[in-house]
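in:
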């Protein structure tokens, strides 16, 4: 197996342990803005819908880029909230791109349909974890909000309620820029 994926599995397990700490013991804020907004690394990846997802083609939209895997419990837990967010913001200049790390289309298809309603946002397949190497991902899930100019505006390491008022506030701020 890919050594990077093995490392992420270890980080995911450590993240689960940290998630068990009481909220008062966790120091990381919900979303972390970078010191300066750097251009997000472009990727062109096949999707589970027989197309390609090219991040650079989404400039002009706010993009939630979520790096995840089916074997990652926090990743699985946050997917319904991401789907809910995508549904709430349908019709706005907002796109969700979930980048799956190291798995094949069959696993993704089965995973997508485990939910009710099924996940409808695009899932990019990074089977060899090549795109992952270009992003500041330290564990799974790691999610980024990319602004309309293609720059990383926020990062979140670990699962989160992406359909929360706080998440929508940050996204609407980015949509207004």
């Amino acid at each position: 197996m890919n050594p990077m994926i093995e490392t992420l599995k270890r980080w995911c397990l450590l993240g689960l342990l940290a998630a068990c700490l009481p909220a008062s013991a966790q120091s990381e804020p919900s979303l972390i803005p970078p010191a300066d907004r750097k251009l997000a690394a472009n990727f062109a990846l096949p999707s589970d819908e027989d197309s390609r997802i090219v991040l650079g083609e989404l400039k002009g939209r706010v993009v939630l880029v979520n790096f995840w895997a089916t074997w990652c419990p926090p990743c699985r837990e946050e997917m319904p909230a991401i789907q809910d967010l995508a549904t709430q913001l349908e019709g706005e200049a907002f796109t969700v791109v979930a980048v799956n790390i190291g798995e094949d289309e069959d696993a993704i298809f089965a995973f997508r349909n485990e939910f009710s309603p099924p996940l409808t946002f695009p899932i990019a397949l990074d089977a060899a974890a090549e795109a992952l190497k270009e992003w500041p991902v330290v564990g799974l899930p790691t999610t980024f909000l990319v602004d309309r100019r293609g720059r990383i505006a926020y990062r979140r390491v670990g699962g989160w309620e992406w359909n929360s008022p706080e998440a929508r506030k940050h996204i609407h701020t980015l949509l207004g820029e």
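note: Confidence is low (pLDDT under 50) at residues 13-28.
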